[in-house]
Amino acid sequence: MPRSRNEKDEIEKYMGLSKLAQVLSFLVVFVAGVVLGLVMSSHINQHFVSKTEVYSFINHFSTDGPGVKDENCTIVRDCGKAEDCLSMNALLRPKNLTHRLSDNELFWRASMVPQKEEYPYKRVPKVAFMFLTRGALPLLPLWERLFRGHEKLFSIYVHALPGYKLNVSTTSPFHRREIPSQHVSWGTVTLADAERRLLANALLDFSNERFVLLSESCIPVYNFSTIYNYLIGSTQSFVQAYDEPTRYGRGRYSRRMLPDIKLYQWRKGSQWFELNRALAVYIVSDTKYYTLFKKYCLPACYPDEHYLPTYINMFHGPLNSNRTVTWVNWSIGGPHPVTYGEANVTVDFIQAIRNNGTPCQYNTQTTSICYLFARKFAPSALEPLLNLSSSVMKF
């Protein structure tokens, strides 16, 4: 009997120790969990406090400072109010031409057309002057004089060499008007690329209604009011398009463009065009026909002389006048027109361009004002042009 009682005591003692060990294990696990939870909570709080501080700093800076830039947007102050990417003004009239869009992204963005006819703001139509240049604009002082006092009626876009910045004052209408560009080679599809790039950037401003392509050698031959009213009031665009039966026209056509483009649809024309907004949207939206020209219009076929004339003739002929508003002299033959320098610029010469003796059609009426611009002028022509601008061109 005693032996049995001892065994029972031993068993009870063992069970008691076992329960104590379980309790102690539970307490250890519980305490460890509490400690781990406190540590993690501390790190999380510290993370969110840090993020809140950063956000608070950015928000304070963007509200109280003159402006802050991030990768996608420029926040600027306008009339005492902070303006962000989603503001109506930023959507309608982008102030900063710098962006990181590829051409495909840019053309897609520019092809968007509002379906609502009326505008939710008072829209004043503008003329977009698009300069395709290799570098400097030697005749820039003449253009600056033309634009003076008409700041709400025009926009300027410059496609120069990548990274090139015009050396102009901050008060010049050309200040910071360079668009993101790519290298351009004469006689290749890169010229058409640059034209479409200019159009797409200009289309981002919903106030731009007319789009005129110019070079560094172009000059205006009328004052701004005449140019503006002529273009804004026109019911058609001004893209020269004609059938040239020689090797310089039809001879450049490739049968590999069949069946999409047929020989009888092929057209030639001046590179220097003027478009209304509807046609500009069609052009930046086109992929099919542009791709055909890119693949098959190779030297000695020049896309800048054939793509727009052919495309517009095929699909949008009634919207086009089939003539250019930029005068040029091709009488010497060859790949380049006559260049005019200091000795050529006289009152009679400019008047001859303004009233060239060959009437043209404007809104179904006959007019003597056929050319608003002229080329090709050398840098040496600047001084005599400035001397004649007020007396002959009236600006």
Automatic annotation (TrEMBL):
<protein>
    <submittedName>
        <fullName>Uncharacterized protein</fullName>
    </submittedName>
</protein>
<dbReference type="InterPro" id="IPR044174">
    <property type="entry name" value="BC10-like"/>
</dbReference>
<keyword id="KW-0325">Glycoprotein</keyword>
<feature type="transmembrane region" description="Helical">
    <location>
        <begin position="20"/>
        <end position="40"/>
    </location>
</feature>
<keyword id="KW-0328">Glycosyltransferase</keyword>
<dbReference type="GO" id="GO:0016757">
    <property type="term" value="F:glycosyltransferase activity"/>
</dbReference>
<keyword id="KW-1133">Transmembrane helix</keyword>
<dbReference type="Pfam" id="PF02485">
    <property type="entry name" value="Branch"/>
</dbReference>
<keyword id="KW-0808">Transferase</keyword>
<dbReference type="InterPro" id="IPR003406">
    <property type="entry name" value="Glyco_trans_14"/>
</dbReference>
<keyword id="KW-0812">Transmembrane</keyword>
<dbReference type="GO" id="GO:0016020">
    <property type="term" value="C:membrane"/>
</dbReference>
<keyword id="KW-0472">Membrane</keyword>
